[in-house]
UniProtKB/TrEMBL annotation:
Cofactor: FMN; FAD
Pfam families: FAD_binding_1, Flavodoxin_1, NAD_binding_1
Top-level taxon: Eukaryota
EC number: 1.6.2.4
PANTHER family: NADPH--CYTOCHROME P450 REDUCTASE, NITRIC OXIDE SYNTHASE-RELATED
UniProt GO MF annotations: flavin adenine dinucleotide binding; FMN binding; NADPH-hemoprotein reductase activity
Gene source species: Platysteira castanea
Residue intervals of the Flavodoxin-like domain: 83-227
Domain called FAD-binding FR-type: residue spans: 282-523
UniProt keyword annotations, A-Z: Endoplasmic reticulum, FAD, Flavoprotein, FMN, Membrane, NADP, Oxidoreductase, Transmembrane, Transmembrane helix
Protein name per its UniProtKB record: NADPH--hemoprotein reductase
GO cellular component terms, semicolon-separated: cytosol
């Protein structure tokens, strides 16, 4: 076509006659071309449609399938459930409570299921009323500074953005929190309030569990009032006493390929032998310990500095992030449990969920051995919760011991008091209970079903990735104490880390880990002053902060005042990172180093006392310098005392009343100028 049109473009032959002739020619040509193009297009369109119509239908079906899979409504209808218990869980406790509530349902002629909100489309809540006598319960833990847990983040985001009509939904919420934290039970409170705003009907009051007190008792107290409210609402009655129902069945593998047996992996089989990024909670990286040194010069405690090699892992971290470490239980405790129960710990077995529709096929990776389960997967050092005691009671052959176990698991005041004194305050773990109750010898598979999962431990990273891109540093103190029964209890993770001695390619120095992002961040502008308060191992993130400020200074950046308030017991015993801090001060990076030695004099001196002593300078940095404040360490006492000290300083120098000063500090928090990284 292009060749046919070319002559008309030549100006040398463009006469009036030839132009008219060409016009006529082109009008005919245009009609021909348009007809040809229209015909070709029509032919292509119809034939294309016929060819593609057939595969289109299955394509649409395959896209729709995952949506149905993620519908908890369809699952509940299919399995005859009418109560769904969602859990937002970081350490496994909220998941455990959700499982207990879903098991309770059968006593009232109802059927429950525990559900991870991360696995379902929560917009389906508006359809729950399609199921008769339906109810949604939410066991929601609060993580960090009022944040949702990782698995509840999407649910939280949806709640914030949703304009759904939930008027047919009936719900109840139990929150898990800790009163030593600023935003006590923020997630539970938010879910309870937001569901009501969206039109849902609350059938029982919000429960607020406090882990600083007795979380188990808080849950039992709420639960014993919750079920009567459910009965009244639906007009049902309890069908009988609480009974023991096994959730998993035991399968012993006598002839098994050992390559198919889990040996401690958290997710994928053989993931520790064949490491593949990205690394996270379900796929931790095995980091080599390259340094493990004692930090303190004296005293009874053992404070240590560890360095984990993350070369070739593609793991990235920022100063202020947390490193999560998966520890292993002490082999002597594991062996003693095996001995007392007369079990061959190397038996390979699986615990398979009796509910075939459940997303959770096993309580921990299976098949595995009892030894592996008790070493890597199960928590054997914390005092067991009351539901574990209730289930175990049936195996006590002595009537007195059985009665004692049942009493401690009851909601009676006497039973609660006995559980508090005999289990919680005496810090009796499962081994101690078995030792102190000679007639209690449960089957080891049922014990493994009941014990909670061993959780990762989080540590504030004590290094800067700008200075140490291929290693992550940890600062920790080993936990060791004598209980009221005279037993020596040891912290699982810290004593396990203490034993990690650097060696060339040795498996004994490998640590399964991943990085959890944090909001604890240096200011965007390096010129912004920072005030850091971190006694004891609370100094960890500030070592990273100071390293980063030193690096920024070396890059020629203007770095603002860097002020540290640090505290320890004795100057010549547990002054951590003394040489490093002195060097940073000498280099002019650390502009102020204020150290409180609490026990080197008759009157105890803590970091808050030094803040008061320097109150004028502190206020100047906050008010004129727009300084950012960071607090790391103990939440119960130190963080609270430090915050009260800031209230006093703001009140005095800002000429404000106490309520105004409190509001001022809260606004600093909202703006990200007052950050906490604390633990209880």
């Amino acid at each position: 076509l292009a060749a046919m049109g070319e002559p008309s473009m030549d100006p040398t032959i463009s006469t009036p006659d030839s132009t008219a002739q060409q016009d006529s020619l082109f009008s005919m040509m245009d009609v021909f071309l348009i007809s040809l193009i229209t015909g070709l297009f029509t032919y292509w369109f119809f034939f294309r449609k016929k060819k593609e119509e057939v595969p289109d239908l299955p394509k649409m079906q395959s896209v729709a399938a995952p949506v149905r899979d993620s519908s908890f409504i369809e699952k509940m209808k299919k399995t005859g459930r009418n109560i769904v218990v969602f859990y937002g869980s970081q350490t496994g406790t909220a998941e455990e409570f959700a499982n207990r509530l879903s098991k309770d349902a059968h006593r009232y002629g109802l059927r429950g299921m525990a559900a991870d909100p991360e696995e379902y489309d929560l917009s389906d809540l508006s359809r729950l009323s399609e199921i008769d006598k339906s109810l949604a319960v939410f066991c929601m833990a609060t993580y960090g500074e009022g944040d949702p847990t990782d698995n509840a983040q999407d649910f939280y985001d949806w709640l914030q953005e949703a304009d759904a009509d939930l008027s047919g939904l009936r719900f109840a919420v139990f929150g898990l929190g800790n009163k030593t934290y600023e935003h006590f039970n923020a997630m539970g409170k938010y879910v309870d309030k937001r569901l009501e705003e969206l039109g849902a009907q609350r059938i029982f009051e919000l429960g607020l569990g406090d882990d600083d007190g007795n979380l188990e008792e808080d849950f039992i107290t709420w639960r014993e009032q919750f079920w009567p409210a459910v009965c009244e609402h639906f007009g049902v009655e309890a069908t009988g006493e609480e009974s023991s129902i096994r959730q998993y069945e035991l399968v012993v593998h006598t002839d098994v390929n050992m390559n198919k047996v889990y040996t401690g992996e958290m997710g994928r089989l053989k993931s520790y032998e064949n490491q593949k990024p990205p690394f996270d909670a379900k796929n931790p990286f095995l980091a080599q310990v390259t340094e493990n040194r004692k930090l303190n010069k004296g005293g009874e405690r053992h404070l240590m500095h560890l360095e984990l090699d993350i070369s070739n892992s593609k793991i990235r971290y920022e100063s202020g992030d947390h490193v999560a470490v998966y520890p292993a239980n002490d082999s002597s405790l594991v062996n003693q449990i095996g001995e007392i129960l007369g079990t061959d710990l190397d038996t390979v077995m699986s615990l398979n969920n009796l509910d075939e529709e459940s997303n959770k096929k096993h309580p921990f990776p299976c098949p595995t051995s009892y030894r592996t389960a008790l070493t890597y997967y199960l928590d054997i050092t914390n005092p067991p919760r009351t539901n574990v005691l209730y289930e175990l009671a049936q195996y006590a052959t002595d009537a007195g011991e059985q009665e004692r176990l049942r009493k401690m698991a009851s909601s009676a005041a006497e039973g609660k008091a006995l559980y508090l004194s005999w289990v919680v305050e005496a810090r009796r773990n499962i081994l101690a209970i078995l030792q102190d109750m000679p007639s209690l010898r449960p089957p080891i598979d049922h014990l493994c079903e009941l014990l909670p999962r061993l959780q990762a431990r989080y540590y504030s990273i004590a290094s800067s990735s700008k200075v140490h891109p291929n290693s992550i540093h940890i600062c920790a103190v080993t936990v060791e104490y004598e209980t009221k029964t005279g037993r020596l209890n040891k912290g699982v993770a810290t004593n396990w880390l203490k034993s990690k001695v650097p060696e060339q390619n040795g498996s004994s120095s490998l640590v399964p880990m991943y990085v959890r992002k944090s909001q604890f961040r240096l200011p965007f502008k390096p010129s912004t002053p920072v005030i850091m308060i971190g006694p004891g191992t609370g100094i960890a993130p500030f070592i990273g902060f100071i390293q980063e400020r030193a690096w920024l200074k070396q890059q020629g950046k203007e770095v603002g005042e860097t002020v540290l308030y640090y505290g320890c017991r004795h100057e010549h015993e547990d002054y951590l990172y003394r040489e490093e801090l002195a060097r940073f001060q000498k280099e002019g990076v650390l502009t102020q180093l204020n150290v409180a030695f609490s026990r080197d004099q008759a009157e105890k001196v803590y970091v808050q006392h030094l803040l008061k002593k320097n109150k004028e300078n502190v206020w100047k940095l906050i008010d004129e310098g727009m300084a950012h404040i960071y607090v790391c360490g103990d939440a119960r006492n130190m963080a609270r005392d430090v915050q009260n000290t800031f209230y006093e300083i703001v009140s005095e120098f800002g000429s404000m009343s106490q309520p105004q000063a409190v509001d001022y500090v809260k606004k600093l928090m909202t703006k990200g100028r007052y950050s906490l990284d604390v633990w209880s």
